[in-house]
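Protocol step 4 of 5: obtain the predicted structure for the target chain.
Materials: sequence only (see below). No template structures provided, no constraints applied. The aim of this step is simply to have a reference model before the mutagenesis design in step 5. Sequence pasted as it appears in the construct record:
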Amino acid sequence: MKVMAIILARGGSKRIPNKNIADLNGKPLIYYTIEAAKKSKHINYIMVSTDSIPIAYAARKYGAEVPFFRPDSISQSYSTEYEAIRFTLDTMKEIYDYKPDLIVKLYPTSPFRTTKSIDQAIQLALNNPTVDSIRSVKRCKEHPYKMWTINKRNRLRNLIKTRKEMHTLSYQLLPPVYVNNASIDVIWPKTVVKKHSVTGTNIIPFVMSDEESFDINTPLDLEIARMLMQKKVKT
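Step 4 output (structure tokens):
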């Protein structure tokens, strides 16, 4: 079975310049995702989708393929994951006559995600071939029932309007809520090609821990990741 990992890593990050190859414990950030994918018992092709020569160099150095570059037109801050993945599938088919049976989308900003979790998410998809995708999530610490907006009169209004004052309840009494954690998505190619989506509507959740869900987006996130990585090395 052809299981292709796609690591989306464009070069135009704003908050952390060259974020995807930022130094983390002596290695570029993208290294940790490539290493986790290389150890998977299911993944047999690892590809980095990028528009950046330095990112491509790092990806190839640590064992991933960069068979072509992503066009600038779909490498902007407003570009969608669907555009990048659809371009990848179409180009791989056209140039290399390669059609994956399963796509594993890995985010390079999640350095603490384990190979075990990757394989569990893939196995979940293999056990459920009729679903559109598997999407990784984590439990929300901030509940939407306790969120507010501020109107033009500078008054608080509940983000979610309910008959009961749900915002007064303790967290234990509120229904569990989950959020995307930017770690692992497993997608059947038919979802991309036929439904023009990277998730579809028939989605199975893959719940992950806070540590594995740690996602680097800001300079503070990167500093925290460095401290966590140093702690892991010492233990």
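Step 4 remarks: The chain has a mean pLDDT of 95. The longest strand covers residues 178-187.
Proceed to step 5.
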